[in-house]
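Input.
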Amino acid sequence: MTGSLPEGWRRTIEELRQQGGTVLVIGAVDVGKTSFCLALSLAAVLRGLRCGVVDADTGQSEIGPPTTVGCGVVEGTPSSLSQLDPLSLFFVGSTSPPGHLTPLVVGARRMADRLRSEGCDLTVVDFPGFVQGPAARVLVEGVVASLRPTVVVAIQARDELAPLLAGARGMEAPRLVTLEPAPMARRRSAEERATRRRLKFAEYFGKSTVLDLDLRSCALAGSSPFGGVPLRPNLRRFIERRASAEVLYAEQGGGRIVVITRTPLDGAARARIEEGVNGLDVVAIPAGWLQNRLLGLVDGMGEHLAVGILEQMDLSTLKASVRAPLHSAASIRQVIFGSLCVRVDGTELGTSGQAELRLFDNGPREAGTAR
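Output.
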């Protein structure tokens, strides 16, 4: 495969395949990062190294479904990274890094550790094409500090990665290598990317079953609205009267009240609730927010078992029907609420999560919440 690559790529691959360690590959979208990772992995395997790949591109995942960081060991001569069997997954909960920087960094580190435990001599990390703005710099610097890669390969057309690389220039470790994009790299449209995600989701959930899950017996994380103490029936009815809407669930905790209503509340209804609860912060969530939400399903030791879709939920008992490629719910001890809603056929229904609902801070309010 290396014969068809640019000369600079071939020289770099020839050098890197003779050493072990961790190689982090960064660059904007459609510059050939995944092609470089595949070519380097194949070259390393041909030299006799045991090589693994961490796929941290949660929007255009090759290993595992979108919204996850996945890893796999390279066996034989695969023609694409999607042919690698997922060895492990880490649920990030979104196809886009903003708002999910910490899970991305943790997921990349967890997957790299897993490959090292499998005896991999070389770990290649394919990173998302999120390279613009301060958040991108925070992400890259965070993953470099966490992974401590041997080499950072930066693929850039001009100097668009300069702000991201400022913290690594002149360092002995990691060593920085810059390459130009491959001529064969093709720009994909937003529609092509969405279609690919849909097909990946459909493939993943095509082998799923429906599990009965009692959320009261699980730790709840991510953008979960269930973290406080359920309100007594009389207080819930009081809020219902103030809102002039059916309240399906209400809880208090952390200086705020979370209410889930059958229909979305307008600004006037939210204001009436706040007037009646002595100035407590109020988060109002329509029940539809839960429907088809992606969930990370985790065991008691923190291992991410699978991604699930929340199909139905009884808010009076917090019992849920979750579709996932698992045979049983017996091992599930934690549920991570993601920011994306998806149908079983892979159709994306939109995103919303902690950034939109402001479940975890007291910042300025956006649509759907009251202040």
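The two ends are 58 Å apart (CA to CA).
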